[in-house]
Amino acid sequence: MFRKILIANRGEIAVRIIRAARELGIATVAVYSTADKEALHTLLADEAICIGPGKATESYLNINAILSAAVLTEAEAIHPGFGFLSENSKFATMCDEVGIKFIGPSGAVMDTMGDKINAREQMIKAGVPVIPGSDGEVHTAEEALAVAEKIGYPVMLKASAGGGGKGIRKVEKAEDLVAAFETASSEAKANFGNGAMYLERVIYPARHIEVQILADQEGHVVHLGERDCSLQRNNQKVLEESPSIAIGKTLRHEIGAAAVRAAESVGYENAGTIEFLLDEASGNFYFMEMNTRVQVEHPVTEFVSGVDIVKEQIRIAAGQPLPFKQEDIVLRGHAIECRINAENPAFNFAPSPGKVTNLYLPSGGVGLRVDSAVYPGYTIPPYYDSMIAKIIVHGENRFDALMKMQRALYELDIEGVQTNADFQLDLISDRRVIAGDYDTSFLMETFLPKYQKKE
């Protein structure tokens, strides 16, 4: 086991990792920007090193500064958390080159799964269902028309070398395709130096289902069930739950097995998530992408599976085999997570940084967990994600979990900054959410218009 690890992150995930490491008897090193000098993760860690100014590009994204801090403090491993450098293959490779274990997959695996066309081809080889689309890159509008006619409209044009929302266009009908292709291709060439595109049929509305996997260094892969992340605003998750009400025993087995095959096919190591779209009308599910890191919503899976995912990440990186097999994983009860952010729903969810003058986080009772790095008097800086806390509940069944979350949100009290707490309470109290009758279209097309009228 490691003697000391460095956490290359901040906020609640840094605190989460520090706590897991301490319970494993491992010393921790926090890195922080000047804006985070008084942040909770710097106060909880055994050592704390300043790595630069508040701007993320000069601190939490500064690979050389982070590696220097690891070498200086003699850390044996680096946990990247989520966001920042967590899916940066160069960082993972550089850790390996200087003899520091990266707690995650290799840079080569990140590159394989990060390239959309490569990942798609790999999944087809592994027998994992993929969204109907083009076989490889499409270079001309004429090719795109032929593919679209074959797979059916609407289609999504995506830059082969894309990312960050660049070079993407949704096309509803054939007469719009040529203009959309030329615009998206030009945008892709300007941003990535490559105008090649690929096409996928649009599966919408759908359920956004993701499957948590763990893979050790000996090639053993186990999945921990699925999370339903369909409640999204502008493609950003708002509330997550596990298991999904839309998935029965047979489909759970099929989608879990597909996620395991996906991870095995690339020689995956550590924690990861395979994301799928589920077409409820047909019952078909399709691979979307793989997240090669721990995710914000991992606590709901921990509640229902009984597995501490962060501790397992550390154990796997230290060379320990998974202590369980697939048949040992039994999902119990139901878990829900609400993300509480410093943002103003009345003004299009604009960030609301500032000083938290008063804070009461809900507590008491079995099956309630709050992950946070905020405390009374703490000033939320304007440079980073606006998350204040994650409230996670676990009940014997879904209704029990819903009622527990409502109780927790009623108790929550945050003063000094605007938050989305009332928005979350309204969402969790909505009759369609209570019934589980929602998909990826619900929040933006049904709930938000009604909510904004009420505001």
Automatic annotation (TrEMBL):
One Gene Ontology MF term: ATP binding
The UniProt record lists the keyword Magnesium: yes
InterPro entries: ACC_Biotin_Carboxylase, Acetyl_CoA_COase_biotin_COase, ATP-grasp, BC-like_N, Biotin_carboxylation_dom, Biotin_COase_C, CPAse_ATP-bd, PreATP-grasp_dom_sf
Domain annotation Biotin carboxylation: ranges: 1-448
Keywords from the UniProt entry: ATP-binding, Biotin, Fatty acid biosynthesis, Fatty acid metabolism, Ligase, Lipid biosynthesis, Lipid metabolism, Magnesium, Manganese, Metal-binding, Nucleotide-binding
Enzyme class of the recorded protein, top EC level: ligase
Catalyzed chemical reaction(s): N(6)-biotinyl-L-lysyl-[protein] + hydrogencarbonate + ATP = N(6)-carboxybiotinyl-L-lysyl-[protein] + ADP + phosphate + H(+)
Keyword Calcium: no
Entry EC number(s): 6.3.4.14
Pathway membership, UniProt: Lipid metabolism; malonyl-CoA biosynthesis; malonyl-CoA from acetyl-CoA: step 1/1
Protein's GO biological process: fatty acid biosynthetic process; malonyl-CoA biosynthetic process
Residue span(s) of domain ATP-grasp: 120-318
Complexes and interactors: Acetyl-CoA carboxylase is a heterohexamer of biotin carboxyl carrier protein, biotin carboxylase and the two subunits of carboxyl transferase in a 2:2 complex.
Function: This protein is a component of the acetyl coenzyme A carboxylase complex; first, biotin carboxylase catalyzes the carboxylation of the carrier protein and then the transcarboxylase transfers the carboxyl group to form malonyl-CoA.
Identification of the protein by name: Biotin carboxylase
UniProt organism field: Streptococcus mitis bv. 2 str. F0392
Gene designation: accC
